[in-house]
Amino acid sequence: DFEGHAIFLEEDRLFVFYTLLGVRVPAGRRERLAVFLQNLNYRLKTGTFFTEEETGELTVRIMQYMTGADWEKQELVEKLVTDCGRTADYYYPDIMREVFG
What is the pTM of this model? Predict the structure, then answer.
């Protein structure tokens, strides 16, 4: 189970969704993981993995500018939230192997 947070920046019409993976990467493993995530992010079509610099909290984020009718926005938000969760779920085992060996 992952925790998710949605933010809508109204002025920018930007929807941002974060999925927290519930993992804090130990300080000694962050540099190694950063290289792994950089290579992973390059290959992803949607979403970006990152770690919080100070705490090591591991997160995947997806963003989209929102235009169109309200029903189109609702459909797009549902797809983005689902895609973010699926991305987190799919790559979680590989990331955990990289973090904890």
Answer: 0.86
